């Protein structure tokens, strides 16, 4: 007789066989008729007609995987090359042209530190990094024909590669500069940007507004990647630097933020006295810590050679170069702060200022101003930085080579969040930053340099490299009592050169009185010029080439004056030199282009992919708010290489009103229709509407990918 327990066991066995038969049947149907198994399609990517991925995922892990997949579709060749460089193995993969890059990465310990950082991540963030990497690997496995064969040697990508890429970009290019480090020079932060936040008090609609306007090179790891990321509790729109798994700027349903590069002392160079194969430290000889590193270099015939070199460390940091008597060590902030991605992820998910600041307070990102606005009408500014606590010296002192023979100059910790310049909801109704020190983030100024450590930042606006652009930013904000959304966009495309407003009258009048015929002809052209660098502006080429040539010689006679902070510097320092340079430039312009009043856009070109368009915008150092920096080309013209990149204008209405533009397009892959496809809008001073709702995205759908 079968008891109850035995019956139960037999029943369970039958059920198990039944479930197995059902699952087998489903699998056969799936394989035969290509029916998806429930739960395998965790994500879908809706690609709009501008090549922007709108990712919808069932969970955050799937979201990161889909984001890695999407970036590879848009920038796969570039990303694999960048990750290979971040490993310090690019010369091994692709030859001697990458040897200098590999030596820099290896000397700075980037790949080793990246592994250490990976092990220090929380389980959640480690999973997200792995998922982003898996998305990259999955795309290449699915579409191998889309990736250059020589780049596949980098695969598979790991979470450690992403952290190495982050370090290389943020700590060893934004904070520092490889060429300057090699020469033992002081290293300023790299990059630029404009950023505005407008409170309801200043806004024509009564809603807070945000303008995000970073300026970076139009190539390599500086490129922005636009995307929308959706998962439970997440709906972000914005841009990430290519190869990064998290948006660096953008907005969600409640708030938005942007970043600008801030002037911080993020790297100090120390001079060490060499003695007896060591260096003097606290009155005694201390030995360098030395490692032997090896790099493989791929030859054109496929064989390899090997380079062996030593890397020395002092108590301050890695030795970057040395001569007979001295060695030079660099100490860089933030190498002990591995949780930058965690901080950015939490900030991007924030729903209010308190939550956003909770992310910032982690101080894992070593630099960048943050400007913030939200639906509640709050606006906020933070001079975000890892600022070392120092026992002596001011800003000017720490820009020099520092004596390295004593612990008195060796910093070991950073200032707390509460010590940083910060401002919320000022009476002026606006906050701005154009890479100037924090003391000019609104006007009249509220934050005072004397209330902070003297080494924290430059002591005044007068120290800003792009002082004219910063002053132009403040002017544009102050000239309107109320600012509408459309006015904000129009002001963003202002290409007026503030330098011309300051000195053109005296240049023209002096030239007319004293110059040779070619100079007098140039003066007549400049007198008619509209001070703009628009495509049809005549006189802009002549003035810009003159100003850029003269700028290094000290252009202004009157330096910046705190009593007149928005109108100085001014005046011409050396009339004779100014006239001589103008006549020389005028002769060159006439020879090359046949006319002194050649239109700006005929000479200055925007070239991306197959696009070759006349430029609108000029150098920020000359006071243009619409920033395009240029370099000479082989065809005797000039090409834009740096400047306006991803632009976002956001009004925190309900629903949110936003326009964006990724100036050079959202892809670099060969044959992609989105290489340079937004350049024509930029040339017209236009931006695109943001499509955030799924129904609206589907109306502009180019492609649907299910993962």
UniProtKB/TrEMBL annotation:
- The membrane-spanning stretches of this chain are 18-39
Identify which cofactors the protein needs according to its UniProt entry. Answer: Ca(2+)
Q: Name one Pfam family in it.
A: Penicil_amidase
Q: Which key words tag this protein in UniProt?
A: Calcium, Hydrolase, Membrane, Metal-binding, Signal, Transmembrane, Transmembrane helix, Zymogen
Instruction: Write out the GO MF terms.
Output: hydrolase activity, acting on carbon-nitrogen (but not peptide) bonds, in linear amides; metal ion binding
Q: Which CDD domains does its entry note?
A: Ntn_CA
Q: Where does Ca(2+) bind?
A: 265, 268
List the active-site residues.
Answer: 193
Q: Which InterPro entries match?
A: Ntn_hydrolases_N, Pen/GL7ACA/AHL_acylase, Penicillin_amidase_A-knob, Penicillin_amidase_dom1, Penicillin_amidase_N_B-knob, S45
Give the UniProt record's GO annotations in the biological process aspect. Answer: antibiotic biosynthetic process
What's noted on cofactor binding?
Binds 1 Ca(2+) ion per dimer.
Its recorded name reads Peptidase
Name the species this protein comes from. Aphanothece sacrum FPU1
Q: What is the lineage of its organism?
A: Bacteria, Bacillati, Cyanobacteriota, Cyanophyceae, Oscillatoriophycideae
């Amino acid at each position: 007789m079968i008891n109850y327990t035995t019956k139960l066991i037999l029943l369970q066995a039958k059920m198990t066989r039944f479930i197995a038969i059902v699952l087998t049947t489903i699998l056969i149907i799936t394989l035969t008729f290509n029916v998806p198994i429930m739960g395998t399609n965790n994500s879908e990517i809706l690609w709009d007609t501008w090549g922007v991925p709108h990712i919808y995922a069932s969970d955050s892990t799937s979201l990161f995987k889909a984001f890695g997949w999407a970036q590879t579709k848009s920038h796969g060749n570039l990303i694999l090359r960048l990750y290979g460089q971040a490993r310090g193995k690019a010369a091994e993969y692709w030859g001697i042209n990458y040897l200098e890059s590999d030596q820099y990465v290896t000397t700075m310990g980037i790949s080793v530190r990246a592994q250490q950082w990976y092990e220090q991540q929380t389980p959640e963030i480690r999973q997200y990094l792995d998922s982003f990497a898996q998305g990259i690997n999955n795309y290449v496995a699915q579409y191998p024909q889309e990736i250059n064969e020589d780049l596949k040697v980098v695969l598979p990508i790991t979470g450690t590669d992403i952290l190495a890429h982050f370090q290389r970009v943020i700590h060893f290019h934004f904070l520092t500069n490889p060429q300057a480090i090699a020469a033992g020079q002081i290293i300023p932060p790299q990059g630029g940007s404009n950023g505005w936040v407008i409170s309801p008090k200043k806004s024509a609609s009564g809603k807070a507004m945000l303008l995000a306007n970073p300026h970076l090179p139009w190539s390599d790891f500086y490129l922005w990647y636009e995307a929308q990321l959706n998962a439970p509790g997440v709906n972000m729109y914005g841009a990430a630097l290519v190869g990064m798994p998290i948006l660096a700027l953008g907005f969600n349903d409640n708030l938005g933020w942007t970043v600008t590069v801030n002037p911080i002392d993020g790297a100090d160079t120390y001079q060490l006295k060499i003695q007896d194969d060591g260096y003097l430290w606290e009155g005694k000889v201390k030995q360098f810590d030395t490692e032997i590193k090896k790099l493989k270099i791929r030859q054109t015939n496929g064989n390899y050679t090997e380079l062996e070199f030593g890397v020395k460390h002092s108590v301050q940091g890695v030795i970057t170069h040395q001569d007979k008597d001295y060695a030079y060590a660099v100490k860089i902030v933030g190498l002990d702060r591995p949780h930058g991605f965690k901080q950015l992820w939490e900030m991007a998910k924030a729903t209010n200022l308190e939550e956003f600041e909770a992310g910032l307070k982690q101080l894992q990102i070593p630099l960048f101003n943050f400007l913030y606005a939200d639906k509640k009408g709050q606006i906020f500014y933070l001079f975000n930085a890892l600022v070392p606590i120092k026992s002596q010296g001011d800003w000017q002192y720490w820009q020099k080579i520092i004596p390295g023979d004593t612990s008195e100059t060796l910093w070991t910790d950073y200032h707390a969040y509460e010590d940083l310049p910060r401002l919320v909801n000022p009476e002026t109704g606006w906050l701005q930053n154009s890479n100037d020190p924090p003391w000019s983030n609104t006007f009249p100024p509220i934050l005072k340099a004397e209330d902070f450590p003297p080494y924290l930042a430059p002591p005044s606006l007068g120290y800003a490299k792009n002082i004219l652009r910063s002053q132009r930013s403040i002017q544009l904000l102050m000239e309107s009592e109320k600012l509408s959304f459309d006015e904000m966009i129009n002001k963003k495309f202002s290409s007026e050169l503030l330098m011309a407003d300051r000195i053109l009258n005296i240049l023209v009048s002096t030239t007319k009185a004293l110059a040779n015929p070619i100079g007098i002809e140039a003066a007549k052209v400049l007198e008619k010029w509209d001070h703009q660098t628009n495509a049809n502006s005549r006189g802009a080429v002549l003035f810009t080439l003159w100003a850029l040539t003269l700028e290094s010689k000290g252009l202004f006679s009157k330096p910046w004056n705190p009593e007149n902070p928005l109108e100085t510097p001014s005046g011409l320092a050396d009339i004779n030199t100014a006239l001589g340079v103008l006549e020389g430039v005028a002769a060159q312009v006439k020879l090359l282009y046949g006319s002194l009043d050649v239109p700006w856009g005929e000479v200055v070109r925007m070239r991306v992919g197959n696009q070759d368009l006349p430029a609108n915008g000029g150098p920020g150092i000359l006071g243009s708010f619409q920033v395009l920096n240029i370099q000479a080309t082989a065809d005797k013209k000039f090409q834009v290489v740096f400047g306006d990149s991803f632009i976002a204008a956001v009004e925190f209405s309900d629903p949110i009103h936003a326009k964006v533009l990724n100036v050079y397009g959202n892809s670099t892959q060969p044959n992609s229709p989105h290489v340079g496809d937004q350049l024509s809008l930029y040339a017209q001073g236009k931006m695109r509407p943001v499509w955030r709702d799924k129904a609206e995205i589907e109306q502009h759908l180019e492609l649907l990918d299910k993962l």
